[in-house]
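Pasting as-is:
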Amino acid sequence: MLTTNRMIASLLLAVTLLTVSIATSAAEVTGKIQSIIHSSKVIQYLNPKTKEVKVLKYTDETTLLEADSFKDLTVNTKFKAVVNDDNVATQIKRVLVKLPPEQVIDTDTLADLMDEGKPIFIGDARPLSVYNAGHLPTAKATPSNQLKENLDWLPSDKEMLLVFYCGGVTCPLSPAALKIAVAAGYTNVKAYVEGFPAWKADVYPSHVNPEWMEKNLDIHHVILDVRENPTSSVKGAVHVPASQLVTMHEQWNAEKFAVGKRMVMGLRDKKAPVIIVADMDNSDEAIEAFEILTFWKYKNAVILKGGMQEWTLAKRPTQDEDFSTELVYEKKMAPGAVEESVFVTAAKQGDATIIDVRNPDEVASGHIKGSINIPLSELDEQLAKVPKEGLVILHCEAGARAALGYTLLSKKGYTNVKYLNDSFKGVVADNGIGLL
């Protein structure tokens, strides 16, 4: 009996030690997703406490909590994860906003109230820089970290419906704004928890204010006048009638042309800030153009609030009827991005190491002579293939995976690495780069 008890005790001790060993080999991380590549199962995230940018991996076996699928993990999602010694997440949990149902309003309800013209104050609780780049129609900038000291931003009627929104179901800014408004005596306050991502996903229009736009009339912003026969327009605008976009859209639909390859005026950058100009912001032309460009995967298409009518009345910069029909646009260079000309020279002359971080099946469809294929998911396991001297340029299909690879290598101490933040096939076609 004593021997049996000792055996049981030994087994319990072994299990305890094993549990402790497993626990010590795992670590919990908290972050906000900056970029995620589902095909490679790699996440780049910002640590909210240290402000460090880090990368982790996940697998099909990773346990997912508070989400139906990995597709629910999007940019700006806040999460907690348990990672092992190989920096692979064994569990990922979305940190969802929790509010009583009576304090929450959904997308369709909010859209219906706006369409009906009901008195409603919509506050954008995100930072001002994010609000400026695109917001819900009629929304006012009410950054939650400044609202308490600026209650005059809110209407004087304490019984008016106030709706605050921010960056989605894991964003705490709209609940924070709601709490401040309630404490200030407002009695009808709700949070649009689904937020701006859901609004965009349902293809409801987004606006930019003319005051902001007037300060950004440069080659880094695309201004499309979609009216049929304008005699003047916003300074720097190019003319693309909505009717022309409709014709192109219908033709490409009939041809079953891939949505991701559809471009307006050859604009490859689907993240480019595109501002649509019509007579009014609710003109049929504005709405048609917005819906088509959104369908073509332009992620930052917005409509000019007040349209050309208000722009002209405010005597903001304009140009005459001979405005351009050719697009002039330059993408702002992101940290670590390489100039297109440098990539082209490297591809043609071989004066830099080009690493292709696409998956093998993508590489098989065409790759640059002399390039090295290291799929992004394997990059940290194949560092020996990455030179520490001489220029190294990473590329993928559109730039997102290459950017993650750049971050990963930078964390490993590489200082000679750049990445192509552009469409690989677009750059190849435009510059006559031969592929194998």
